[in-house]
Design a protein that fits this description.
Structural class: mainly alpha
Radius of gyration: 12 Å
Largest sheet: none
């Protein structure tokens, strides 16, 4: 799995972030311990989670 960076997530709406989080979480379930794919999936989930939290803290955009 490829690492999803914070810069890639900056412009995405929260609904897309949730979709990505779900997809990466599903991919994580299929990875083996101590592999690069697993490390990338975990880091990607952290980046996506931070992006979701950031959107929520900013509030709705009018």
């Amino acid at each position: 799995m490829r690492l999803i960076t914070a810069a890639e997530l900056d412009h995405l709406p929260e609904t897309v972030l949730h979709s990505k989080f779900y997809r990466v979480n599903q991919e994580l379930a299929g990875t083996k311990l101590a592999t690069t794919d697993r490390a990338n999936a975990l880091a990607s989930l952290e980046n996506i989670n931070r992006a979701i939290i950031t959107r929520r803290l900013k509030g709705p955009r009018f």
